[in-house]
Write a structure and sequence with these properties.
The relative contact order is 0.21. The chain has one domain. The chain has 13 helices and no strands.
Length: 299
């Protein structure tokens, strides 16, 4: 099998596209499930089924428990807890799939702050372009992206970026095992927050009356996004250089916005398309520029 990255078999490319399609369409699945499940309860169920029964079959990676705990709280409560609250009437699925990608720049900022890494010129340009896209969304704020929705989604992005830093610092290469076992620590804060903010009666009523669509959405989150997504992504990265696989992740917000327009009828006016072009353009520069430099420097 070719490990140089110059040739990616069609079947592997299709698998990468299937993964990003799952991750992108997930935002519409979230929005539909929130009609039946309170957001924090929904997040609790997502991570419960991400942990069980997978923990019986997937070995805990050789990392510190505190790394798993920190990642679990950041990703469970910080990222998805805030994102689910935001998506219950405060930001559209399409824009949520776009804005949450700003985690890339939060990750870079944390690396600069903690590891004293220097921002390179192309990263600064990428950040400026992507930030212009977020600013465009703020300027055209309407029911599809309220100030609260944007704030909560940006908090979710920051939490995701912090989680990325924790995962990298742990030194693990087994992200599937890391995510599954970290889910154990996502459950208690989400359950406690749901109990306080949504109330036991609402929680029990939602579980009792949730239809098959809501439960399918929970499984889509836990099995599709977590188990399939991370397992298949890790499998691809073990067989090809990241430069061959990672660029497909740029399609996540495209799948997100496209699916929301097709399924939910989310409007795509010119300003929203322009914001998407700026954010995705910034992400593309950040991801592809160093690859181009390495290819140019190669003999």
């Amino acid at each position: 099998m070719d490990r140089t990255g110059h040739h990616l078999p069609a079947s592997h490319l299709l698998l990468a596209l299937a993964i990003v399609a799952v991750w992108g369409t997930n935002f519409v699945v979230i929005r539909l499930a929130l009609d039946e499940l309170p957001p924090l309860l929904f997040a609790t169920l997502r991570f419960t089924f991400a942990f069980l029964p997978a923990a019986f079959f997937i070995r805990r990676p050789a990392v510190r428990w505190r790394s798993l705990a920190a990642y679990g709280v950041l990703i469970g409560f910080g990222q998805f807890g805030m994102l689910y609250i935001a998506m219950r009437g405060h930001i559209s699925p399409g824009l949520a799939s776009l804005v949450v990608q700003s985690q890339v720049f939060f990750t870079i900022g944390l690396a600069m702050l903690v590891n004293r890494e220097r921002m390179r010129a192309y990263q600064g340009l990428a950040l400026l372009i992507a930030t212009s896209g977020i600013a465009l969304i703020i300027l055209h704020g309407d029911a599809s992206a309220t100030p609260l929705g944007l704030l909560l989604t940006l908090i979710a992005s920051l939490s995701w970026g912090c989680g990325n830093h924790i995962a990298k610092a742990s030194g693990t290469s087994d992200m599937l095992g890391f995510v599954v076992w970290a889910s154990l620590f996502s459950i208690p804060p989400l359950f406690a927050a749901s109990l306080v903010m949504e109330g036991w009666p609402a929680m029990t009523q939602a579980v009792a009356h949730a239809g098959s669509g809501a439960w399918a959405a929970v499984l889509w989150q836990s099995v599709g996004n977590t188990l399939f997504g991370y397992a298949a992504w890790g499998w691809l990265l073990s067989r090809h250089p990241a430069a061959s696989i990672s660029p497909t992740a740029l399609l996540v917000p495209i799948f997100g916005m496209g699916t929301s327009a097709l399924v939910l009828g989310e409007a795509l006016p010119g300003w929203k398309i322009g914001a998407a072009a700026l954010v995705i353009g910034g992400l593309a520069i950040n991801m592809l520029w160093p690859m181009l430099l390495r290819r140019k420097a190669a003999p």
